[in-house]
């Protein structure tokens, strides 16, 4: 699936080797991926596709953060190391000026046009860097945090903090498991699609929601479908998963069976309906008479629907 | 699976209804589950099983936290509301004195003896309450946090904090997706089991590790198996999942295929070997000649191995 299909070797054992990381950081063969929150620096490869701007140490040496913040080692690919850095908007603009064709674009929908391996680099980087930005202070004692292990670990600067006495999950990157489910009628003829208020006009998608403490994937799917559209799901089967960089969800794609009248939760959803297979095919192909559509092929919702139709 | 098999209705829409929550909190029909970090208050139901001590509002009114901290609404079961509270050790001891047969025990291995529906209540409670305790300060600005929505949401007390401008994941309970994989030889005759240094002597289990930003379940499984035992996995199939309350992992159980010589990562693992099906059956039944064994039936590793043997 898109956003999780990397050929990079993460080399997690080397993250703690400060000398090795330092050496690779300053190596001019090393590649840097640049971003600012929801913006990325890209070069168009053709009319439809984009690649991330490829810069080396010499080009961005003077902009690099001194304290390991806003900075992460992504891994190695064909013996080339790849790092990502979060830079100020003005700095990005300055770098872009030096590269013909380069431009800064908004990551959504921009990242959907990245080549698949580049999309994975982007999702890895945004997941790590947004976690770092959200963890400037220790959530247990309120003191400043320190980033370690090439961006992958966070410790509290207060040595008396209880976090130093044991591993706490807040020290490691956060990934939010989320179920997304195609709900299919027992005769396989219809599926439930719903609209969140923040969706673009006309877009409908599968039912989704965060996994809570104490739940399995399957139990979460049953709860979310019941809460959002009032249907009791009979069985749930996992199909595949995808990381979704908004900023760090692990989307767990499922198929489930249910039938009956919908009772849509109007606090969360704007609309929810049963759609026939023919309608969904039209929505997937962009030829629905009412102008309705489903998420693009890069989204796991599209993959789930494709498996069903 | 154990720890995720609840019959409780979480009633997530009612969490924001302060009046309803207040009313149910003080209702003497409401049940409270009591704990202190890694300790729980239980009553033996028979020689082998435990249930959580069942107390009502009257019994613990004076101990309840005033600021919604250390406190969570778990849901409704047969029209009875269930809350969980984290109390000081001395308070737990005081309450236990009032109840014949009740006692405070360490949750591990104690919680493994709970009835399955009670184990789910425990895992839901510990996941929520340990998250709350780890989030006393805003990780973005360092100011104190405020708990809302019956324990499920956290906001920053500093109204100028950027977290008030948009949803941030730190505001919601953290669940860490973790893969656990049985690695099987292509002829189905052998599986890989490994020992972490913290395991009880003689215990071997499947390969496990946290999902990182940018990974799918399947990609994480490939990476973890390669990192820990040096084998390249050919295919990965998801089997089932379970929440594991240590304190809040979503264990995603997979089967994967690989073969060859192991190269065990000695920094993370104490030992790792191929075991035959016969050996694994002996380890599951507690009759292995060398005294080796696998995790108990409550652990997903056991379920994965059972599916294979």
Automatic annotation (TrEMBL), chains A, B:
Protein name: NAD(+) diphosphatase
GO MF assignments: metal ion binding; NADH pyrophosphatase activity
The EC number(s) this enzyme carries: 3.6.1.22
Keywords: Hydrolase, Magnesium, Metal-binding, NAD
Reactions catalysed: a 5'-end NAD(+)-phospho-ribonucleoside in mRNA + H2O = a 5'-end phospho-adenosine-phospho-ribonucleoside in mRNA + beta-nicotinamide D-ribonucleotide + 2 H(+); NADH + H2O = reduced beta-nicotinamide D-ribonucleotide + AMP + 2 H(+); NADPH + H2O = reduced beta-nicotinamide D-ribonucleotide + adenosine 2',5'-bisphosphate + 2 H(+); NAD(+) + H2O = beta-nicotinamide D-ribonucleotide + AMP + 2 H(+)
Enzyme class: hydrolase
GO cellular component, one term: cytosol
Key word Transmembrane present: no
Organism: Capitella teleta
GO biological process: NAD+ catabolic process; NADP+ catabolic process
Cofactor(s) this protein requires: Mg(2+); Zn(2+)
Family per record: Belongs to the Nudix hydrolase family. NudC subfamily.
């Amino acid at each position: 699936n898109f956003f999780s299909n990397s050929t990079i070797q993460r080399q997690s054992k080397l993250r703690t080797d400060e000398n090795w990381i330092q050496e690779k950081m300053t190596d001019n063969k090393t590649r840097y991926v640049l971003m600012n929150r929801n913006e990325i620096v890209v070069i168009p490869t053709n009319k439809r596709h984009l690649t991330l701007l490829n810069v080396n140490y010499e080009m961005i040496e003077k902009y690099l953060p001194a304290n390991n913040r806003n900075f992460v080692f992504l891994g190695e690919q064909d013996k080339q190391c790849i790092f990502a850095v979060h830079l100020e908007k003005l700095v990005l603009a300055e770098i872009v000026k030096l590269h013909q064709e380069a431009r800064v674009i908004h990551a959504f929908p921009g990242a959907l046009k990245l080549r698949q391996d580049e999309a994975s680099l982007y999702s890895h980087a945004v997941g790590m860097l947004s976690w770092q930005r959200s963890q400037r202070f220790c959530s247990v004692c309120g003191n400043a945090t320190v980033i370690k292990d090439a961006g992958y670990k966070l410790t509290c600067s207060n040595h008396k903090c209880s976090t130093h006495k044991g591993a706490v999950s807040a020290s490691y990157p956060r990934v939010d498991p989320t179920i997304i489910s195609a709900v299919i009628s027992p005769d396989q003829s219809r599926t439930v699609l719903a609209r969140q208020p923040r969706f673009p006009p006309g877009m409908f998608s599968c039912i989704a929601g965060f996994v809570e403490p104490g739940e399995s994937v399957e139990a979460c799917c049953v709860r979310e479908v019941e809460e959002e559209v009032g249907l009791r799901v009979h069985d749930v089967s996992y199909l595949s998963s995808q990381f979704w960089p908004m900023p760090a969800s692990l989307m767990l794609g499922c198929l489930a069976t249910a039938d009956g009248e919908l009772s849509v939760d109007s606090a969360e959803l704007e609309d929810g309906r049963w759609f026939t297979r023919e309608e969904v095919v039209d929505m997937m192909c962009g030829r629905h008479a009412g102008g309705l559509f489903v998420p693009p092929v890069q989204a796991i919702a599209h993959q789930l629907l494709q498996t069903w139709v």
